[in-house]
Amino acid sequence: MTGFTAKAPARANIIGEHTDYAANQGHVLPTPLPFHTWAAVAERAGAAGQLSISSESFGNQPYDRRADDEPRGHWTDYVIGCVRVFSKKTKLPALEIKIKSDVPIGCGISSSAALCVAVIRALKGLTGADPGDAQIALMAHEAEHDFVGVPCGKMDQFAASLGRPGQALLLNTKTLTTRHYPLAANTAIMLVNCGRKHDLAKGGGYKQRVAECTEARRLLGVGTLCELGTMDLDRLSALPDLTARRARHVITENLRVLEFVAALEAGDLERQADLLAASHASQRDDFEVSIPEIDALVESSKRFGIRGARIVGGGFGGAIIALVPREQAVAWWSFVAKENPKSQLISTYALKNDENEYAA
Ligand code: GLA
To answer: What is the pTM (predicted TM-score) of this model?
Structure first.
């Protein structure tokens, strides 16, 4: 067994936010970004289960941990979770694991799924085991959800494991079926961080939304909220106002994903913009996961003339995503940056097209 290195990308979700919880099981439409986490794994001397984990991105200090350690609120927990899940099926020796990443943290582009998928891919390479991409995504989800204890859905891990550069991945989080769609070549995906971080592992707000959706499902007596469609929206009036609004976001957002895919196939940019705007309004008013700094970015985008902009990721901070015609991308960002001096541009296909892999 020699060493093995693997990488996995961050993701932006184009549309389908908060639809992937276990209580909801709707559709999502993420795409991988040109930011990556690399994991290098190698056998080292010592008893099975002994791990030495370090990261160039976090000061290079090696952490001696064990595969049977409990999580302690440290980034190495994610790595331990992956080792633990992987070793259920494949025996692992003592390991040295080195991590390197250029994924910005806390912006809602899923640095944690990139880390977990990279580690599992590297373990697969090291051992010659044969989990497929969907299996890798499920293992990464188990590590993050069950071991680290983040109450997340499965979107991020599937995006990191199955996503293809320049393509949107339609994932049905109930059946786990996927389909790839090419993104519009003349549209830049602009991601702008508002300056306030979000942290799902600590985030009470996200956890609360998961609980609220579970309660809505219970009160409605359905298997999942995304079984419901437009014709069922009347049923929400029987619920307490807050629960009804949470459920309305999930049901309408799920339908917006499918409409967005149709608009993508038809090349209908106006419809795509309308759907992103509706997604933001629904997350701001019904699901209440936006914050004033994010709303300000979306309003700036509208003032510039781009209404296809919305909050992206887990919410309560992080970033917006906007779909901007390529030739307007630079002017759009100058305008938004001037109105929001604390914001930072995270990634854009338009400005990173030197990376062949990601040039649309
Ligand atoms: C986070 C979670 C995902 C998903 C999004 C919101 O990124 O990890 O599973 O719920 O928030 O759409």
So the answer is: 0.95
